[in-house]
Write a structure and sequence with these properties.
heterodimer, A: mainly beta, 4-stranded antiparallel β-sheet, 0% helix, globular, B: 11 strands, 58% strand
Protein backbone atom coordinates (compact mmCIF):
# COMPACT_ATOMS: atom_id res chain seq x y z
CA UNK A 1 0.00 0.00 0.00
CA UNK A 2 1.78 3.09 -1.22
CA UNK A 3 1.94 6.05 1.11
CA UNK A 4 0.81 9.57 0.38
CA UNK A 5 2.33 10.71 -2.91
CA UNK A 6 3.15 14.28 -3.78
CA UNK A 7 4.49 15.64 -7.01
CA UNK A 8 6.52 17.33 -8.01
CA UNK A 9 8.97 17.05 -5.13
CA UNK A 10 10.68 20.25 -6.17
CA UNK A 11 9.15 23.04 -8.20
CA UNK A 12 10.76 26.25 -9.38
CA UNK A 13 8.58 29.05 -10.65
CA UNK A 14 9.27 32.63 -11.66
CA UNK A 15 7.26 35.40 -10.06
CA UNK A 16 3.87 35.68 -11.70
CA UNK A 17 3.67 32.08 -12.88
CA UNK A 18 1.23 29.48 -11.62
CA UNK A 19 2.19 26.56 -9.39
CA UNK A 20 0.19 23.34 -9.26
CA UNK A 21 0.95 20.88 -6.49
CA UNK A 22 -0.53 17.40 -6.54
CA UNK A 23 -1.33 15.02 -3.74
CA UNK A 24 -2.52 11.44 -4.07
CA UNK A 25 -3.79 10.17 -0.72
CA UNK A 26 -3.21 6.69 0.60
CA UNK A 27 -5.47 4.05 -0.89
CA UNK A 28 -8.84 4.14 0.81
CA UNK A 29 -8.35 7.61 2.28
CA UNK A 30 -10.94 10.20 1.38
CA UNK A 31 -9.72 13.09 3.55
CA UNK A 32 -6.86 15.36 2.48
CA UNK A 33 -5.12 18.18 4.36
CA UNK A 34 -2.66 20.72 3.02
CA UNK A 35 -0.06 22.34 5.27
CA UNK A 36 2.62 24.91 4.53
CA UNK A 37 6.03 25.26 6.14
CA UNK A 38 7.67 28.60 5.47
CA UNK A 39 11.47 28.82 5.82
CA UNK A 40 12.49 28.87 9.49
CA UNK A 41 8.84 28.66 10.56
CA UNK A 42 6.54 25.96 11.80
CA UNK A 43 3.86 24.10 9.92
CA UNK A 44 0.56 25.89 9.31
CA UNK A 45 -2.77 24.43 8.31
CA UNK A 46 -4.13 25.59 4.97
CA UNK A 47 -7.15 23.54 3.92
CA UNK A 48 -9.03 20.34 4.67
CA UNK A 49 -10.90 18.59 1.87
CA UNK A 50 -13.02 15.52 1.39
CA UNK A 51 -13.90 14.20 -2.04
CA UNK A 52 -15.51 17.07 -4.00
CA UNK A 53 -15.91 19.19 -0.84
CA UNK A 54 -13.89 21.80 0.99
CA UNK A 55 -14.51 21.26 4.70
CA UNK A 56 -12.24 23.91 6.22
CA UNK A 57 -10.25 26.52 4.31
CA UNK A 58 -9.61 28.80 7.25
CA UNK A 59 -5.84 28.70 6.68
CA UNK A 60 -5.87 29.55 3.00
CA UNK A 61 -4.69 33.00 1.92
CA UNK A 62 -7.68 34.93 0.60
CA UNK A 63 -6.22 35.50 -2.84
CA UNK A 64 -4.31 33.45 -5.42
CA UNK A 65 -4.64 30.13 -3.57
CA UNK A 66 -7.20 27.44 -4.31
CA UNK A 67 -7.56 23.73 -3.64
CA UNK A 68 -9.67 20.94 -4.96
CA UNK A 69 -10.12 17.21 -4.43
CA UNK A 70 -12.14 15.84 -7.32
CA UNK A 71 -14.07 12.58 -7.34
CA UNK A 72 -11.33 11.06 -9.48
CA UNK A 73 -7.66 11.93 -9.37
CA UNK A 74 -5.35 13.70 -6.96
CA UNK A 75 -5.97 16.73 -4.81
CA UNK A 76 -4.53 19.90 -6.34
CA UNK A 77 -3.24 22.97 -4.55
CA UNK A 78 -3.04 25.82 -7.03
CA UNK A 79 -1.16 29.05 -6.50
CA UNK A 80 -1.68 31.73 -9.10
CA UNK A 81 0.73 34.57 -9.79
CA UNK A 82 3.31 33.28 -7.35
CA UNK A 83 5.44 35.69 -5.31
CA UNK A 84 8.71 35.10 -3.48
CA UNK A 85 6.85 34.81 -0.19
CA UNK A 86 5.15 31.66 -1.48
CA UNK A 87 8.48 29.82 -1.39
CA UNK A 88 7.94 27.07 1.15
CA UNK A 89 7.49 23.36 1.64
CA UNK A 90 3.91 22.26 1.06
CA UNK A 91 2.87 19.04 2.76
CA UNK A 92 -0.19 16.99 2.10
CA UNK A 93 -1.63 14.51 4.59
CA UNK A 94 -4.48 12.05 4.29
CA UNK A 95 -6.69 10.10 6.64
CA UNK A 96 -9.45 7.53 6.30
CA UNK A 97 -13.04 8.58 6.84
CA UNK A 98 -13.95 5.99 9.46
CA UNK A 99 -12.56 3.37 11.76
CA UNK A 100 -10.10 3.54 14.59
CA UNK A 101 -7.52 5.30 12.45
CA UNK A 102 -9.93 7.96 11.28
CA UNK A 103 -8.00 10.77 12.92
CA UNK A 104 -4.47 9.60 12.18
CA UNK A 105 -2.89 11.72 9.47
CA UNK A 106 -0.29 10.28 7.13
CA UNK A 107 2.02 12.82 5.56
CA UNK A 108 3.47 12.95 2.08
CA UNK A 109 7.10 13.84 1.36
CA UNK A 110 6.24 17.43 0.53
CA UNK A 111 6.74 19.72 -2.44
CA UNK A 112 9.46 22.32 -2.11
CA UNK A 113 8.39 25.40 -4.05
CA UNK A 114 11.00 28.00 -4.92
CA UNK A 115 9.91 31.26 -6.51
CA UNK A 116 12.67 33.15 -8.29
CA UNK B 1 1.42 33.60 22.05
CA UNK B 2 1.38 30.32 20.14
CA UNK B 3 -1.50 28.01 20.95
CA UNK B 4 0.99 25.15 21.21
CA UNK B 5 4.24 25.73 23.05
CA UNK B 6 7.20 23.39 22.92
CA UNK B 7 10.34 23.32 25.00
CA UNK B 8 13.18 23.31 24.61
CA UNK B 9 13.54 24.81 21.13
CA UNK B 10 16.98 23.27 20.73
CA UNK B 11 18.45 20.28 22.51
CA UNK B 12 21.87 18.70 22.25
CA UNK B 13 22.45 15.35 23.91
CA UNK B 14 25.14 12.72 24.09
CA UNK B 15 24.42 9.29 22.70
CA UNK B 16 22.72 7.12 25.29
CA UNK B 17 21.10 9.98 27.22
CA UNK B 18 17.43 10.06 28.19
CA UNK B 19 15.67 12.90 26.40
CA UNK B 20 12.46 14.72 27.24
CA UNK B 21 10.63 17.19 25.02
CA UNK B 22 7.65 19.06 26.41
CA UNK B 23 4.48 20.41 24.84
CA UNK B 24 1.83 22.63 26.41
CA UNK B 25 -1.42 23.82 24.89
CA UNK B 26 -3.93 26.41 25.95
CA UNK B 27 -7.41 24.96 25.45
CA UNK B 28 -9.06 21.56 25.54
CA UNK B 29 -8.22 19.23 22.68
CA UNK B 30 -9.49 15.95 21.29
CA UNK B 31 -6.02 14.56 20.52
CA UNK B 32 -2.34 15.40 20.45
CA UNK B 33 0.15 14.20 17.85
CA UNK B 34 3.92 13.88 17.98
CA UNK B 35 5.69 14.10 14.63
CA UNK B 36 9.28 13.72 13.49
CA UNK B 37 10.92 15.64 10.66
CA UNK B 38 14.49 15.12 9.46
CA UNK B 39 16.20 18.18 7.92
CA UNK B 40 14.92 18.68 4.40
CA UNK B 41 12.82 15.59 4.81
CA UNK B 42 9.27 14.46 5.16
CA UNK B 43 7.14 14.19 8.24
CA UNK B 44 6.52 10.97 10.12
CA UNK B 45 3.74 10.56 12.63
CA UNK B 46 5.09 9.04 15.84
CA UNK B 47 2.10 9.05 18.19
CA UNK B 48 -1.49 10.16 18.46
CA UNK B 49 -2.70 10.49 22.07
CA UNK B 50 -5.93 11.45 23.73
CA UNK B 51 -5.05 10.16 27.20
CA UNK B 52 -2.44 8.26 29.16
CA UNK B 53 0.73 6.94 27.68
CA UNK B 54 1.97 5.19 24.54
CA UNK B 55 5.26 3.42 23.85
CA UNK B 56 6.91 2.44 20.62
CA UNK B 57 10.41 1.08 20.80
CA UNK B 58 12.59 3.65 22.56
CA UNK B 59 9.94 6.36 22.29
CA UNK B 60 7.36 7.09 24.98
CA UNK B 61 4.65 9.73 24.82
CA UNK B 62 2.50 10.84 27.73
CA UNK B 63 -0.33 13.30 28.06
CA UNK B 64 -1.99 14.97 31.05
CA UNK B 65 -5.33 16.33 29.90
CA UNK B 66 -6.02 18.26 33.11
CA UNK B 67 -2.68 20.07 32.97
CA UNK B 68 -2.81 20.44 29.15
CA UNK B 69 0.68 19.03 28.83
CA UNK B 70 2.40 16.24 26.93
CA UNK B 71 5.92 14.88 26.95
CA UNK B 72 7.90 12.87 24.43
CA UNK B 73 10.71 10.77 25.88
CA UNK B 74 13.52 9.06 24.02
CA UNK B 75 15.42 6.41 25.93
CA UNK B 76 19.00 5.41 25.03
CA UNK B 77 19.23 8.18 22.44
CA UNK B 78 21.16 7.58 19.23
CA UNK B 79 22.53 9.96 16.57
CA UNK B 80 19.86 8.73 14.16
CA UNK B 81 17.28 10.27 16.51
CA UNK B 82 18.57 13.69 15.47
CA UNK B 83 15.60 15.48 13.92
CA UNK B 84 12.95 18.08 14.61
CA UNK B 85 10.18 16.83 16.88
CA UNK B 86 6.86 18.56 16.47
CA UNK B 87 3.85 18.55 18.74
CA UNK B 88 0.44 19.17 17.14
CA UNK B 89 -3.06 19.32 18.58
CA UNK B 90 -6.47 18.64 17.12
CA UNK B 91 -9.52 20.35 18.57
CA UNK B 92 -12.13 18.13 16.99
CA UNK B 93 -15.50 19.18 15.73
CA UNK B 94 -16.08 19.36 12.00
CA UNK B 95 -12.45 19.92 11.18
CA UNK B 96 -9.54 17.59 11.79
CA UNK B 97 -6.93 20.27 11.19
CA UNK B 98 -3.75 20.18 13.23
CA UNK B 99 -2.27 23.17 15.06
CA UNK B 100 1.48 22.80 15.36
CA UNK B 101 4.11 23.79 17.84
CA UNK B 102 7.30 25.36 16.55
CA UNK B 103 9.28 22.17 16.97
CA UNK B 104 12.29 21.03 18.98
CA UNK B 105 15.55 20.56 17.11
CA UNK B 106 17.34 17.57 18.64
CA UNK B 107 20.97 16.78 17.95
CA UNK B 108 22.37 13.58 19.44
CA UNK B 109 26.15 13.48 19.37
CA UNK B 110 28.10 10.22 19.27
Amino acid sequence: NAGVMQNPRHLVRRRGQEARLRCSPMKGHSHVYWYRQLPEEGLKFMVYLQKENIIDESGMPKERFSAEFPKEGPSILRIQQVVRGDSAAYFCASSPSYGTGAYEQYFGPGTRLTVT
Amino acid sequence: KNEVEQSPQNLTAQEGEFITINCSYSVGISALHWLQQHPGGGIVSLFMLSSGKKKHGRLIATINIQEKHSSLHITASHPRDSAVYICAVRYGGATNKLIFGTGTLLAVQP
